[in-house]
Amino acid sequence: MADPATYRPAQGEIPTTPGVYRFRDEHSRVIYVGKAKNLRARLSSYFQDIAGLHQRTQTMVTTAASVEWTVVGTEVEALALEYSWIKEYDPRFNVKYRDDKSYPFLAVTMGESVPRAQVMRGAKRPGTRYYGPFAHAWAIRETLDLLLRVFPIRTCSAGVYKRAQQSGRPCLLGYIDKCSAPCVERITQEAHRALADDFCAFMAGDTGKFVRRLNDRMAMAAQNMEYELAARLRDDIRALERAMEKNAVVLQDATDADIFAMVGDELEAAVQVFHVRGGRIRGQRGWIVEKVEDVTDADLVEHLLQQVYGTADETSGGDVGAARDSGLVPREVLVPVLPAHPEQVAAWLTGLRGAKVDVRIPQRGDKRELAETVRKNAEHALALHRTRRAGDLTTRSQALRELQEALGLDTAPLRIECYDISTTQGTYQAASMVVFEDGLARKSEYRTFGVRGPDGDGARDDTAAMYEVITRRFKRYLSDLASSGDLVVETVSGEVGPETDDEKDARGRRFAYPPQLVVVDGGPPQVAAAAKALADLGIDDVALCGLAKRLEEVWVPDDPYPVILNRSSEGLYLLQRVRDEAHRFAISAHRKKRGKGMTVSVLDDVPGLGPARTTALLRHFGSLKRLRAATAEEIATVPGMGRKTAEAVVAALVLPEPEVAVAPFVAEPADR
């Protein structure tokens, strides 16, 4: 625990201009990011008498070892840079909004040469337009199935599309007129993109012009006595109307707005949003946030808007107005409390949308009533979350305190790493490393290890495998620490410029962050092996324990008796979750390795041909049969292939000559 006075910068060194600041811990890891209109005034507030700070702020400043800042031109630039750094560094003391579920979106990949409509979850991708979110994936598929009658755009995967190109025949959707089949040039790529643009415009809420266009065409067809065409157009109009009816009209003035509501207490809050486009609810979304920093409701709303709309610029691919066309940033953003800096937030959103965006509190009428409905949804979400105590901040803090007391640690084990070995009778040995920070799984830092053994054939048993894995992990830690120059940590604070290459490299050194506690799955033998590995490397500041499955006993090095935790204790429950997660991850890695080992290809033994080149060859030629028929010159044209490797591939694929059966020679008897 550091004294903030040891790294406090001199008052005159801090500028009074707008900027963004970062607090780093003793391992140079960013733990908090903030912005300020006046950097000197804001940073000085952190270095006042520590007793006068909020408890959460006290924890942050005593965990930090240095502070640095970057000066920007305007407060809007500070807002954008703060979001960028929070997303990049994922600081543990910043507020994080966690989705209460993984929402599916209807996505159109406008960044591809032939755009594709599909269901997508997870992180947003540049060049893709998103519509939703929807409550269920089947709702997207129903809507998409209706709209493909009028907008027959591509929905197939890249593999299906390429096979159709190679065979010259479209897939089933092309035969039933639910795809315009650009794969077989039934429509040009330019015409298909125009069709995708119309589809996106309809999904963004511009529905009236398409219905009017089809009505005019239907009337013209009927006037020309083309009754079959008129009937098809009538069915298309009904399909569009059914797709529009799936979203109830809630605002009669064709409003485009996102309506937010927030309900919470001192520790956590629930947030809900209704996405209204063209007066209809197009989607609903929710988050749960833990107040890990001292923030007001206005600050929470500002952080929320940063997270919700921060991806709009990335997914638009730099195309001005694309965020507006896709509906990611609406004309109105209705919030329960104005953000801490409403003018800057509105200017930032206006820049993303390419048109004016109003950020305000609804006061009366239909919008006020709808905001109350959203608030009731937030209340229900918070009540539901409180029944699931595994993610509760108080419970997790209690679990960490119990582990600190039971194991005799100086501080609470904020970072826990757990290791497990998985094998089948000594074959396909794999190990897992899972990471929990502040009692929550940090899946981005999970790692798997292939156990090699002294001869490259695997370890002799679980203890030898555990010794190898712990040794490799902490050798990497020492190597990264030495290369980053942090063996002696200097708490130098001050102004920083653009990020250097060294800082980018340091972000990639995931092993450079040591745990406070290492947990191994097993009893005394596994604990002894891990302790020997740490001792051989000279590491004596990392605590170690093992959790045995049979009686859930906690074993520590050089102790003949286990540590017994109460069966109902939160500390034991946390260890069990960490151990079970390591076991699950190790089994997954083992199965993957075993499945790969049981899949043999004739290309596996070709010198210089690894998995990436093998995949590139099969993707280029489509099948092993076509690859076998290719010449060395044709194979050498594949990116990444050289002449020598191409010749080796040809030699490996030569089929053996069939053996010709020869009848044994039998001498005929001589005539007598």
TrEMBL record:
UniProt entry tagged with the keyword Cell division: no
A GO molecular function held by the record: excinuclease ABC activity
Domain UVR: 208-243
Top-level taxon of origin: Bacteria
Main location: cytoplasm
Keywords from the named record: Cytoplasm, DNA damage, DNA excision, DNA repair, Excision nuclease, SOS response
Annotated compartments: Cytoplasm
Coiled coil, from the record: none
Pfam families xrefs: GIY-YIG, HHH_5, UVR, UvrC_RNaseH, UvrC_RNaseH_dom
GO biological processes: nucleotide-excision repair; SOS response
Domain (GIY-YIG) ranges: 16-95
Cross-referenced CDD domains: GIY-YIG_UvrC_Cho (cd10434)
Protein role: The UvrABC repair system catalyzes the recognition and processing of DNA lesions. UvrC both incises the 5' and 3' sides of the lesion. The N-terminal half is responsible for the 3' incision and the C-terminal half is responsible for the 5' incision.
HAMAP family recorded: UvrC
Family classification: Belongs to the UvrC family.
Subunit structure: Interacts with UvrB in an incision complex.
Protein name, UniProt field: UvrABC system protein C
Organism annotation: Sanguibacter antarcticus
